[in-house]
Amino acid sequence: MYTKYFICEHCSKRFGLDAFMKEYKGFACPRCGRMLEITYDYERILANFMPAQFRHMPPTHMKYYFALPLKNPHKAVTLGEGGTPLVNIGENAYVKFEGVNPTGSFKDRGSSVEISKAVELGKKEVVCASTGNMGASISAYASKAGVKAIIFTPEFAEKIKLKQMKYYGAKVIKCGRTYSDALIKSIKYAKLNNAYLTGDYPYRLEGQKTVAYEIADQFNCNAPDNIIIPVGNGTLFYATYKAFKEMKLLGIINKMPKLIAVQARGCAPVVNAFRKNRKLRKIKNPETIAGAINCDNPVEGENALLAIKKTRGDAIAVSDDEMIKAKKMLARKGIYAEISSAAAYAAYEKMRIRIKGTAVMVITGIGFKDRN
Ligand SMILES: [Zn+2]
To answer: How remote is the CA of residue 7 from the centroid of ligand 1, in Å?
Structure first.
């Protein structure tokens, strides 16, 4: 394992990984409350790692173990996540189809790392707040590991996703109108019951990074010019940024892609903040059919903004109607996407005259999970 420490990007305070996890009280900086981030010993990775290996192994999640915070990758809890197709859908446009992961969404990469960590720490119970996909994913990996899963969901969560969680054996608790309501309940539960808190936290972020490693790998160790990503909590977005930053440090790629964030018009805190050049503000009455990106107060929102600015990227909002239309258009190209994921294609359609070079849309979930 090449990990070094947790760092708070806000106040620069560092924490030893093992010591911090032993007295584990969640993942916020004890000094200023911001989310911690995991750093690696990049020099040591460079000394042990040959970029040539990229060319001789198919891209899969665990291939990038050098950039994952797992003590023993052979003991990782896995369902064969990752290794998803990169599909050319015409000209310079590509789809990275994350809907074909074991539980039907990109969340499986993060769940594999989080549940592996919970097992490393000897935890018997995990808890999570979710609008659906993450809860389903955590439930599956918890089952595989023989750990109990408790999932808090807001009222708007899709029935079909709740059914999936229950099939995996999770205890599902419906609570509150918004994602934030469920999130607060999950944190309280973890503290009271000594359960491992899963969700949009540092270990998940590390697992989500492998989608970016795979994209670069599938472009023969190059970054595409643009990557378009639907943003709910912003974890995938920031993870993609962190992964490309690491790959540049490690000499795998030589330029950063522009990162483009997409949100639903009825719940677009990151887009609003970016357009108005101000801090993130919680959305009072979020409203969209795109449940998977309906996050009123994104956990990694400030970091998503940072990633847009650092890559000279962009942020755009799309309407529910535009997403429904995009879902149909993608299906005509053979890609059956969840509404929230189709947002990436809706954004591409809106921006295509402005986009220069190659564009990859991350299609985060499969279409079976929607009512629409
Ligand atoms: Zn801090």
So the answer is: 8
Question: Residue ranges of the chain with pLDDT lower than 70?
Answer: 23-25, 50-55, 372
Q: Cα of 242 to ligand 1 centre, how many Å? A: 19
Ligand 1 center to 159 CA (angstroms) = 38
In terms of Cα–Cα distance, which of 292, 243, 240, 235 is closest to 263? 292
pLDDT at residue 153, rounded to an integer: 96
Ligand 1 centroid to Cα of residue 302, in Å, is 14
Q: Distance between CA atoms of 156 and 69, rounded to whole angstroms?
A: 33
Q: What are phi and psi of 169, to 5 degrees?
A: 100, 15
Q: How far is the CA of 165 from the centre of ligand 1 (A)?
A: 35
CA proximity to 51, closest of 73, 68, 66, 38: 66
Query: What CATH number does the domain containing 129 carry?
Result: 3.40.50.1100
Domain co-membership, 27 together with 159: no
**Residue 228 and residue 365 in one domain:** yes
Strands ordered across the beta sheet of 171-174: 171-174, 148-153, 125-129, 196-198
Do residue 208 and residue 198 come from a single domain? Answer: no
* Residue 81 falls inside a structural domain: no
Measured in Å, residue 28 CA sits from the centre of ligand 1 at: 8
Residue where one domain finishes, among candidates 169, 202, 235: 202
Show the domain range for 17: 3-75
Tally of domains within the chain: 3
Q: How far is the CA of 39 from the centre of ligand 1 (A)?
A: 15
Looking at residue 29, its pLDDT comes to 86
Ligand 1 centroid to Cα of residue 14, in Å, is: 9
Distance 200 CA to ligand 1 centre (A): 17
Q: Write out pLDDT tens, residues 23-47.
A: 666 788 888 888 899 999 999 998 8
* Residue after which a domain boundary falls, among 187, 202, 217: 202
* Overall pTM > 0.90: yes
Distance 226 CA to ligand 1 centre (A): 32
**Do 214 and 323 fall within a single domain?**
yes
pLDDT tens-digit readout, 217-238: 999 999 999 999 999 999 999 9
Q: Which two tokens stand for residue 351?
A: 């921006």
Note the pLDDT of residue 25.
Answer: 65
